[in-house]
Structure to design on (207 residues):
């Protein structure tokens, strides 16, 4: 019986030693992973600070509505806009995968346009010329009444909203997809005026 005690102690020591080594290995592995995550995070943060991505600038340079017919609250219209967009980033390009635009009178949508995909390089200024249309659109009674009155006077106060899905590009790296919104308020648009009296307006950009 006495000879079994050293064997038991030896077995306990071996098990304790294995447990300690396993704990040290797990601790070392966790610290290594944590260190790598910190390094990667710091690298990404510094890169982001250096590149300093800024949202693109949008302006409405021209607007007119050459066609507008409103009968018994049924609207048919065609509206033309010139939009200027500028990418202010010196190292970052922008992919526009999808862009849709809508014209609002008051809080009701009265025309739409599918502007489509395009690419915008570093510091590039691009002019977009979408045509917004409405076909047999039913308006609310109050909206139809006010729109008819303003149309008779020859000037409409409209709002433009754009919705786009974009990605930023730096070298061969591309960011995740972002949803961008552009809002242009208080557009005083005259009927088929050739854009001569339209004052350009800067739009607000949101992500």
């Amino acid at each position: 019986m006495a000879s079994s005690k050293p064997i038991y102690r030896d077995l306990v020591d071996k098990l304790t030693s294995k447990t300690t080594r396993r704990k040290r290995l797990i601790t070392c592995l966790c610290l290594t992973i944590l260190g790598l995550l910190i390094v990667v995070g710091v690298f990404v943060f510094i890169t982001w600070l250096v590149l300093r991505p800024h949202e693109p600038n949008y302006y409405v340079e021209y607007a007119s509505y050459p066609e507008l017919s409103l009968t018994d609250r049924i609207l048919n219209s065609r509206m033309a806009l010139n939009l200027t967009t500028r990418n202010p980033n010196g190292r970052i390009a922008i992919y526009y995968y999808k862009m849709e635009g809508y014209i609002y009178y008051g809080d009701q949508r009265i025309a739409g346009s599918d502007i489509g995909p395009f690419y915008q390089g570093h510091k590039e200024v691009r002019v977009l010329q979408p045509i917004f249309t409405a076909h047999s659109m039913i308006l609310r009674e109050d909206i139809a009444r006010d729109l008819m009155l303003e149309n008779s006077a020859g000037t409409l106060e409209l709002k433009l909203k754009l919705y786009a899905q974009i990605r930023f590009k730096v070298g061969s790296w591309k960011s995740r997809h972002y949803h961008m919104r552009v809002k242009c308020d208080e557009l005083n648009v005259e009927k088929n005026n050739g854009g001569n009296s339209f004052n350009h307006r800067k739009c607000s950009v949101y992500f």
